[in-house]
Design goal:
Number of helices: 9
Order of helices and strands: HHEHEHHEEEEHEHEHEHEEEEE
Number of domains: 2
Shape: globular
CATH superfamily of the largest domain: CAP
Number of strands: 14
Helix content: 10-25%
Distance between the termini: 47 Å
CATH architecture of the largest domain: 3-Layer(aba) Sandwich
CATH topology of the largest domain: Pathogenesis-related Protein p14a
Strand order of the largest sheet: 1-3-4-2
CATH class of the largest domain: Alpha Beta
């Protein structure tokens, strides 16, 4: 019963996600020893996931009833000043739920030490499956946290956790008071199809049945002034559409200058996507969305980081050795353009290598289904499928050398992703309605899979070449701008 919801909600625990996807800005919050953009993204994914599952009709309550779909359902923005409020409360290590600031509400939970926010929030998202759902809310405390998270009137939230002596405290604060008995959680109806269906806060765009406020001004990164819970106008909600720090996307090709991570990107005169707010990374490429790009990029980099740390197991259960020279991938719009052209042909096989010298390619086909209804889902499943070959088939061995026979094995999908000196990534997804499937293509430059060459250098992490620095948390080599 949980499989479809797990696909949409638990993927945050599987890979390192981005702090921007075209709908929201880089978080820009002040990191602490515990709180960083990974924690924030894990939390964000749960709030997005609740809304996505309502729109898709994936939830079932204890009686097997599917809650009605919502209309005018907005995805709230993660806000740094609210995170600071949550952190102040969490740092006191309260034994019970503390009192939220005036006009705000909160979710609170104690958890085992070092438990990530995303895992706690995921527990909240599944509460509805163990009760009889009611909207308006019937006061049942067993799904109050779920109801708080799903409130359609919420526009902003922030979360924090603190490690106490024997337990972890997780607190998420919302810019609306806690749900009350008899209060509507959301308005049932038809999920948005067009941008004009999003009317609560404007300007806004509709994407996959959910509404996103269009943000146009830079975000304040560390305001200590509480935000008014009654302010929902888009004019007073401030953020940017800048790509996330650390993995900026070129605007045209791999030689493009890096977009600023502290101010909105320069305006583009033309954008190939009818919703330009969703397509800031590669404005000339209208077939993709920033959030699909960032998903692909971060799923790749998370897995490369795990490999660099020596945490990736072979098919016999033994861990592959750590990687010394693993580079952090960056996004390339020209690679994406070529990948899109191949995907648009709706053919599941690889393109002719002669047409892409020095570039490797992974191609996958995913059936359109209830568990994979959107391009985001198709991209996620494809990256997982390519990487999972390291656990499924005989692989590269402890010498991590690519051999001739690997060219005939699906391990080549994994090694294309894992090749240490591959630095640029570009991906595309096409929905092929005539075939009832998605075609997913990712291209890699410079390409690996060179026979009798090592996939990566073994040894202590972050043996980075000149011009690169070490990302100590990820153990990846990052180009010095």
């Amino acid at each position: 019963m949980l499989s479809q919801i797990t696909v949409l909600l638990l993927h945050a625990a599987v890979y390192r996600l981005t702090s921007a996807d075209g709908h929201r800005a880089p978080f820009g919050c002040t990191d602490t020893a515990i709180m960083d953009d990974q924690e924030r993204e894990f939390a964000y994914e749960q709030y997005w996931g609740i809304r996505t599952n309502l729109v898709l009709g994936n939830y079932k309550d204890q009686q097997g009833n599917v809650p009605p779909k919502p209309q005018n359902m907005y995805v709230p923005t993660y806000t740094c000043s609210i995170e600071e409020m949550a952190l102040k409360l969490a740092d006191t290590c309260p034994q019970t739920a503390p009192t939220p600031p005036a006009n705000y509400g909160l979710n609170y939970q104690q958890a085992p030490l070092d438990t990530a926010i995303g895992y706690v929030a995921d527990e909240w998202t599944t509460q509805i499956e163990n009760v009889t759902f009611a909207n308006p809310y019937d006061g049942n405390p067993k799904y109050k946290e779920w109801a708080n998270m799903a409130q359609a009137t919420m526009t902003r939230f922030g979360c924090a956790r603190a490690s106490c002596t024997t337990f972890e405290v997780v607190i998420c604060i919302h810019d609306v008071p806690d749900i009350k008995n008899g209060q509507d959680i959301y308005t049932p109806g038809t999920p948005c199809v067009a941008h004009t269906d999003c009317t609560t806060s404007t300007p806004a765009v509709c994407d996959d049945g959910l509404c996103y406020v269009i943000y146009t001004t830079p975000v304040s990164t560390s305001s200590t002034t509480p935000l008014s819970s009654t302010t929902t106008s888009a004019a007073t909600v401030t953020t940017s559409t800048t790509p996330k720090p650390g993995t900026p996307a070129p605007t045209s090709s791999s030689t493009s200058a890096r977009p600023s991570t502290t101010a909105p990107p320069a305006a583009v005169t033309t954008n190939a996507n009818p919703g330009p707010e969703l397509n800031q990374w590669c404005p000339a490429n209208g077939g993709m969305l920033d959030r699909i790009r960032s998903l692909a990029l971060d799923m790749h980099n998370y897995r490369r980081s795990q490999l660099a740390k020596g945490l990736v197991a072979k098919n016999n259960g033994n861990l592959l050795p750590p990687a010394a020279n693993m580079r952090k991938m960056r996004y390339d719009c020209e690679l994406e353009k070529a990948a899109q052209a191949h995907a648009d042909g709706c053919v599941g096989g690889d393109s002719d290598p002669a047409t892409r010298p020095g570039i490797q390619e992974n191609v996958h086909s995913v059936y359109i289904s209830q568990s994979t209804p959107y391009r985001m889902d198709a991209m996620r499943e494809s990256v997982k499928q390519w990487w999972s070959q390291v656990r499924k088939v005989e692989g590269i061995g402890m010498a991590v050398t690519f051999k001739e026979h690997h060219l005939q094995s699906t391990i080549q999908w994994f090694t294309k992703m894992a090749w240490a000196t591959t630095e640029w990534l570009g991906c595309a997804v096409t929905k092929c309605n005539s075939n009832g499937n998605f075609i997913i293509v990712c291209r890699y430059k410079p390409g690996g899979n060179i026979v009798n060459h090592v996939v990566y250098e073994k040894g202590a992490q972050c043996k980075c070449p000149a011009g690169y620095s070490c990302s100590t948390d990820e153990k990846l080599c990052i180009v010095i701008s």
